[in-house]
Amino acid sequence: MSIKRREFLLLFGGSASAAALGSLVGCERKAAVTSPGATPVTQPGFTFQPIKGPIPLQTDGLKLEQQKQNYNTYEVVDDLVLPENFQYQVIASWGDQVGNSRFGYNNDYLSFIPINDEEGYLSINFEYISTLPWMQTYQQVIGKSLPLEEVKAALKKQASGKSEINAFALPDEDPIKAQIRLICTEALLDQGLGIISIRKNANGKWERTNSPADRRISGISGLSDGKYLKATGPAVRVFRKQQGQGYIDKLGDRIIGTFANCAGGTTPWGTVLSAEENFQTQLPESVYADGTSFDPGKRPFAFDDEEFYGQGNVLGLAANKYGWIVEVDPANPQDYGTKHTWLGRYRHEAVGIRVETGKPLAFYSGCDRRGGHIYKFVSSKTVSNPKDKANSQLLQQGMLYAAKFNPDGTGRWIALKSDTPIDPSIPSNIAGNLVSLPRGPVTPNQKITPRKPQRKLLDPIPSGYLEVRKDEEIIQYKQKFKQLNALYTGNAEEKQGTILIDAHYAANAVGATCTARPEDTEVAPNGDLYISFTSGSHDKQGGPDLRIFKSPKGEAPYEYGWIMRLTEDGNDPAANTFRWQMIATGGEPATGGFGFANPDNLLLDRNGNLWMVTDISTSKTNSAVKSRTSDDGKPTSISGLFGNNSIWYIPTSGDNAGKAFLFGMGPMECETTGLCFTPDEQNMFLSIQHPGEANGIRKNQAIETREFLVTTITGEEFTQTRQVPIGSNWPSKDSNAPPKPTVVVVTKSASA
Fold first, then answer.
1. SS (H, E, C) 516-556
2. What does the pLDDT read at residue 259?
3. Bridge-partner residues for 697, per DSSP?
4. Cys bridge to 293: 247, 467, 512, 726, which one at CB 3.0-4.6 A?
5. Could you tell me which residues are beta bridge partners of residue 326?
6. Number of alpha carbons in the 13 Å side-chain half-sphere of residue 609
């Protein structure tokens, strides 16, 4: 879908001009290559000349031959590249001290809670461990060693032939168990949240003040220090069970740690909501019909160059306690987090917050998986004062809904409660033809039989869910189960708790729309919700609805992502129906895309203008594109064309409304994420996550020359020669230095 500027302006509703990053002082930057002929972004208080990216853009202002000449070569840089007169300053990096702990790994969502105009608390999410660079640099950065080689050797010796160990089942005196426990506790320590206090000094630079509030809330909080996390809502009844069909950790409503913390949101009353995302790589996602967890042994410990798997296995963590939204008050040193179970358990990505006096709270979030859903929580009671910290109590009672998108641009919210009718989507409408559904109650001794080559309808799969691939299977499922309460066991509150614990599969059962990996949900000043969908491809877990998620030319599946605007009917946060529209599409300009790929975190400034960062898979960034078709004539991936992950600005008013301007490019193999402004919007905090994720340390300035078949904005092909560094030395940029996940602040020179 190609959107004209006037249409885009109408979609956004028009607003005042931006004034972000007006006039500040920074400390370092990489000199950017300005895109010659590019339209400068010029609005009151905010001007920048877009940088040159890897492919021609509509905003370049170049004629056809100029595009070919200007883009026949391109140099990728291992640095954070910003426009002229903009700088960045490092705030903190992996391994730096935070309270009595350390700054974690793969920093993601950022939230600045001001104390005054130039001082505040910066809350940082730490998402996961990138195995290769973490193992390669751990001793150098942290100053101690781990028994990685010993455990690797033990994995290779497994009699089962599988390189995995169920450390949970090993006796405590087994030395391999102790070694695995050490690795896992260190990995979990590097995840969770961090709170650091910062201020801008007289020289205009930011510095840490190391206040008593500085602390870590990690994946092992409570394990040995008694600093457990708390929980509210119906799932607490399940956590407190003394016996059940599955595994129970005997801790009741106390919870050990938080991990896989990806995106999040900030409340008007000064708390931060942190989203637990890909917990399923560390613990079994499946639960029994009574809400209890599968045994930790179902997710054994293993690792490869991309991930440590089963980190919760050796510690015996109960899986149903992870995959939630965690609320933390950064200013309260004694607050180690509360998981509000009314917000649902799934692979949370972001929290969009709508708080208006006299109305219920509305919290929006997405499940970042192929075939995931968009959710809305609506509180039972209304808001009296948006800044009152008592508003946290409103998260303890309400209803969770999942979105149903209709192809005509309308939609409705489906309540995830016991009496909601069963009505799953049919597989023929879904990319990959797969819908996974809860299998319903079974007796405690009933086994889960594995898939068979010639399986019967509704055979359960090893995960405990039903893989439905034929439309007629849905008919059979609806005949067997009429309402959600038929799929779960227990009293009324326990059933509601289990529905929330099993939210993704419960949402599948009631017909919520399978979407294209929802990455962020941001509420605009006028109440509209903006949603980024990062990838329309499918995998073995599912895929998006082909009727909703299409390319600009109508093809589906489509890899390169979308940004959607959702408007509640009557502009009511508690509305049961809504309207939706795609307002930006990823991909090449020649095919109707905006020039970016895989939109991720969004940020709306106070004037409604859109900032966006991308999340192209590390394995695809700068991958050579020598042909656009495979030997069998099918289109090949062009993800490599888009270069490193990047930062974009899309104004929603003025002469440039509806155009995408390239503001920044990240270092090698990183993800740019966590965009966050100070209240005056003169400072932008930014996370640089997993630099060097695929190749680790860039050794001796290693570089490769690769070829790319690029197109002009009108679709004419030409060859580009691109210089691509191998690995990363960022942020120090010294030769052979370790790459480190880092938080920076971006500012503009006072004289510019």
1. ECEEEEEECCCCCEEEEECCCCCECCECCECCCCCCCCCCC
2. 98
3. 728
4. 247
5. 274, 339
6. 26
d(C-alpha 246, C-alpha 659), whole Å? 53
Token code pair at residue 269: 């009353």
Residues with pLDDT less than 50, the chain: 1-20, 22-27, 29, 444-461
Give Cβ neighbours of residue 509 (< 8 Å, ≥ 6 apart): 422, 424, 437, 438, 481, 484, 487
- CA proximity to 344, closest of 417, 437, 250: 417
Q: What SS3 state is found at 571?
A: helix
C-alpha 283/C-alpha 275 separation (Å) is 16
564 half-sphere exposure, CB direction, 13 A CA radius: 27
Distance CA 744, CA 404 (A): 38
Distance CA 490, CA 333 (A): 38
Q: What is the dihedral of CA 634, 637, 641, 642, to 10 degrees?
A: 140
* Identity of the amino acid at 516: A
Q: Is 557 helix (H, G, I), strand (E, B) or coil?
A: coil
159-186: pLDDT as tens digits: 777 899 999 999 999 999 999 999 999 9
Reading the block at residue 376, the tokens are 């809305």
Q: Containing H/E element for 613?
A: strand 610-614
The DSSP secondary-structure symbol of 84 reads: T
What is the rounded CA–CA span in Å between residue 500 and residue 506? 8
Q: In sequence order, which ranges of 222-292 are alpha helices (DSSP H)?
A: 235-239
Q: Hey, what amino acid is at 670?
A: C
Q: What is the spatial distance between Cα 681 and Cα 23, in angstroms, rounded to a whole number?
A: 10
In the three-class reduction of DSSP (H, G, I as helix; E, B as strand; rest coil), residue 296 is classed as helix
What does DSSP say about strands 562-568 and 86-93: parallel, antiparallel, or unpaired?
unpaired
- DSSP code of residue 632: T
Contact by Cβ (8 Å): 343, 485: no
C-beta of residue 405 within 8 angstroms of C-beta of residue 477: no
| Element holding 493 (H helix, E strand) | helix 492-501
- pLDDT value of position 448: 44
Preceding omega of 731 cis (within 30 degrees of 0): yes
Residues 6+ apart with CB under 8 A from 181: 167, 314, 315
Helix axes 492-501, 503-510, angle to 10 degrees: 100
Which of the 8 DSSP states describes residue 379? E
CA pair distance 596, 428, nearest whole angstrom: 30
CB 108 within 8 A of CB 126: yes
Neighbouring-strand partners of residue 102: 97
**What does the buried/exposed string (b/e) look like for 533-564 if buried means 16 or more CB atoms within 10 Å of the residue's CB?**
bbbbbbeebbbbbbebbbbbeeebbbbbbbbb
Rg (CA), the chain: 25
The residue type found at 339 is K
